[in-house]
Amino acid sequence: MHIKLKNSSSTQRFLSKLINNFGGAVINAAMVFIVPRALGPAHYGNFNFLRDSFQEIVGVLDLNTGTTHFNYSSKYKETITATTLYFYFCLALGIILLSGIALVNQAGFSAYFWPGQEVGYIYAGAILAYLMYLSVGLTGLSDSKEATVGLEIRRIIVTIIGFMLLLALFFNRALTLSTFFGLRIFVFFLFIIVFAIYLRNKHVFRFRFAKVNLSESKEVLKYFVSYSHPLLTLSLFSFLFVYFDRWFLQIISGSVSQGYYSLALRLSAVCILFTGAMVPIFRQMVAKAHGENNKSYIQTLFQKSRIFYFVSAFFSIFFLFHSREIIYLIGGAQYSGAKVSLMIMLCYPIHQTYGQFCGSMLMALERTDLSRNIGLFSLALGFIFSYFLMAPNSFFIPGMGLGAVGLSLKMITTQVIVVNVSLFYVCKIIRERFVKYLSFQFIVLIPLLIIGYVTNGLYGSFIDESSGVIGAVSQLLISGFSYLITVMALCWIFPGLLGLKRHELKDYIGKVLSLVGFMR
Fold first, then answer.
1. SS3 of residue 490 by DSSP
2. pTM value?
3. Over 90: is that where the pLDDT of 420 sits?
4. Which residues, including other chains, have CB under 8 Å from residue 157's CB and lie 6 or more apart?
5. Nearest to 64, CA basis, from 359, 293, 276, 289
6. 3-state per-residue secondary structure call for 431-468
7. Whole-angstrom distance, CA of residue 449 vs CA of residue 460
8. What is the DSSP letter of 367?
9. Which of 85, 341, 365, 418 sits most deeply, having the most CB atoms within 10 A of its CB?
10. What is the DSSP letter of 293?
């Protein structure tokens, strides 16, 4: 018999993740000022190409066991058998990954899978991706058992240690592609050790080889197969098509374009820090409510996604109007070719918010069959866009030859279509009006675009050949302050922009003020 989880403070867990996300964002922002400049577009592109490629490979080898384990562990209290089996699987995955690379390299096929990459870097990319996979698995285990706060404190400490080591390499002029790979591998290895010790001390799981009960194992495996088998096809095709994007970009445009696209993708991720902090908690809460058949609470939870959509749009639109300053400050002249890609990718987090909440909802409600079908549609549509936007005119089937810009356009176009398809089905399942969420997108974006355009245009541009960094920072600060104040005033007058009523907005403000007073 499964025992249901006890209630816990979702607010506390959310705040711990949010604080850690913002702390990590400050460090990552500092890293973005250092790493792209130190490595240059080509090496920065190589690093991201290898890491991202192997993340996709690890993702397909995972067979969705990580997602299944999180959902199982969120619903039930007694999950030692499930976690033990998942632990064994993770170890086997690492062995298979490294053995597969050795076979590919021995057969002389490395240049086809990872064009232009040295063998040593290929192994480094694989090890890094595997360690990242393990850290995500441990984080998921922590979140599912509501042990988030302590783990997030440890995460930020390790992140600070890694950043200090990065500074040491940079100021000693020792930051190269090799040392950066080595540093990231060390940091994630440290993550895993610290997380494992913490979870063991919290009695969540003992990281050791142990026997498992045969009857319990059969029950767990039955759940895993039932939950994840609809997603296996999606995982395979996801790997093929997503890997194709970066591989095709590498083939037709090279490492420099990889660097441009990678920088744009990393910077756009800053806009979803607030959303990213809530998504795993949201999914755990929905899975728990689903286990209790609490349909009204699931509906209430999803309604809150509109707040996070607004916040993501708020950041994305502001940075969209200041992409020139951002490129100037972070990459300098050598990354000037990334400007258009960055402007496009800064729109990506807006609908990604709805996408994250819809995806989490389908996973938590165990509608993996629907998630698979939507995912396959997304991959097929994305493949068509990828080819025709990136392929050169000289190909047998000519394309537009847009390179990194084309891949960015593909990401945005596909996402807007697929997210609204997902939103339609989620609304249907939980009996919400799809039109309400569809119209909300325009209600939010139109005023934010107007305010962003006006506040940027009123002050002109401080950045020119003479003003340099001071001008760029001044433009961001002055426009940002005006943008923030104007948007806050508009939300007070029209709280519906946040998907809230006036009394709900006052309640939220009161809670924030109480929290600030408590923190003092």
1. helix
2. 0.71
3. yes
4. 194
5. 359
6. CCCHHHHHHHHHHHHHHHHHHHHHHHHHCCCCCCCCCH
7. 17
8. -
9. 341
10. T
Nearest in space to 274 (alpha carbons), one of 11, 17, 8: 17
Separation of alpha carbons 324 and 340, rounded Å: 9
pLDDT tier for residue 5 given thresholds of 50, 70 and 90: very low
Task: Give the contacts of 513 (CB within 8 A, at least 6 positions apart).
Answer: none
* Spatial separation of the C-alpha atoms in residues 210 and 212, rounded to whole Å: 6
Per-position DSSP letters for 90-120, written without gaps between them:
HHHHHHHHHHHHHHHHHTT-HHHHSTT--HH
Q: How far apart are CA 113 and CA 109, in angstroms?
A: 7
189 band by pLDDT with thresholds 50, 70 and 90: very high
pLDDT value, residue 10: 53
**DSSP label of 139:** H
Residues listed for the chain: 520
Query: 154: which DSSP letter?
Result: H
Q: Residue 76's beta-bridge partner residues?
A: 4
Mean pLDDT of 64-85: 81
Residue 375 CA to residue 378 CA, distance in Å, equals 5
Residues 230 and 371 sit within 8 Å (Cβ to Cβ):
yes
Burial pattern 314-336, b for ≥16 Cβ within 10 A else e, equals bbbbbbbbbbbbbbbbbbeeebe
In 3D space, the residue among 137, 140, 138 whose CA is nearest the CA of residue 62 turns out to be 137
Rounded Cα–Cα distance for residues 62 and 56 (Å) = 10
Is residue 235 scored above 60 in pLDDT? yes
Cβ pair 124, 181 in contact under 8 A = yes
- pLDDT winner (highest mean) among 25-39, 117-131, 150-164, 310-324: 117-131
The amino acid at residue 250 is: Q
Are the CB atoms for 501 and 495 separated by under 8 Å? yes
Average pLDDT (98-116) is 91
Cβ atoms of residues 407 and 389 within 8 Å: yes
Q: Which residue has the tokens 């819809």?
A: 358
pLDDT at residue 194 in the model: 93
Cβ atoms of residues 447 and 497 within 8 Å: yes
- Give per-residue burial for 344-355: e unless 16+ CB within 10 Å, then b: bbbbbbbbbbbb
- The secondary structure element, H or E, covering residue 190 is helix 177-201
**3-state secondary structure labels for all residues of 239-271:** HHHHHHHHHHHHHHHCHHHHHHHHHHHHHHHHH
Are residues 191 and 58 in contact, defined by beta-carbon separation less than 8 angstroms?
A: no
Give the residue among 272, 356, 355 at the shortest CA–CA distance from 316: 272
DSSP annotation string for 373-438: HHHHHHHHHHHHHHHHHHS-TTSSS-----HHHHHHHHHHHHHHHHHHHHHHHHHHHHT--HHHHH
